[in-house]
Specification:
The chain is α+β, with helices and mostly antiparallel strands and 159 residues long. Helix content is 22%, strand content 31%. It has four helices and seven strands. Strands 1, 2, 3, 4, 5, 6 and 7 form a seven-stranded mixed beta sheet that branches. A hairpin with a 2-residue loop joins strand 2 and strand 3. The radius of gyration is 16 Å and the shape is globular.
């Protein structure tokens, strides 16, 4: 396994939707924010904007940092930035230039509301600073105080 790299990613929002990149890897599909490894000599900001262009073929502008967290390895970090793109810009399915054509994992992109994102994928958004974006902060505050959901936990369902 290679050296662990920091990751930089973009949270691009349009109203109550977030630009998500769809990946297919090791037999499963998942959505995450446009992003990837920070290359040597590159700032996290430069990496985030480069990855946005590679994965969605759009150029963006960083509005502000949202979060800096550690990956599960406890060493490498994930930097998330709130990024805007021109309103009339239409993303396209990009590629990961580090992978060959046969190895590509990006299968598409989508603008998704929180309720359209699988719980597993949504969990990563909270670590990425989702609650620092006013529209999502306000949405989460409307969620019920006594509503619980945890996949596969029938004890919570019976309480």
């Amino acid at each position: 396994m290679g050296e662990k790299r920091d990751r930089a990613q973009c949270m691009v929002c349009r109203g109550d939707q977030i630009l998500m990149i769809e990946h297919r890897m090791k037999g499963r599909d998942f959505f995450n924010l446009p992003g990837g490894g920070v290359e040597e000599g590159e700032t996290p900001e430069e990496a985030a904007l480069r990855e946005l262009f590679e994965e969605a073929e759009v150029k963006g502008r960083i509005l502000r940092p949202l979060a800096r967290e550690y990956k599960p390895d406890g060493v490498s970090r994930v930097f998330t930035f709130l990024v805007e793109i021109p309103e009339d810009t239409v993303p396209k399915k990009g590629i990961d230039p580090e992978l060959s054509e046969d190895e590509q994992t990006i299968v598409g992109f989508a603008w998704k509301k929180l309720c359209e994102i699988a719980e597993r994928d949504r969990a990563y958004l909270f670590g990425a600073g989702l609650m620092r974006v006013p529209i999502f902060h306000d949405e989460v505050l409307t969620w019920g105080d006594d509503e619980y959901s945890y996949p596969g936990d029938s004890e919570l369902e019976s309480e």
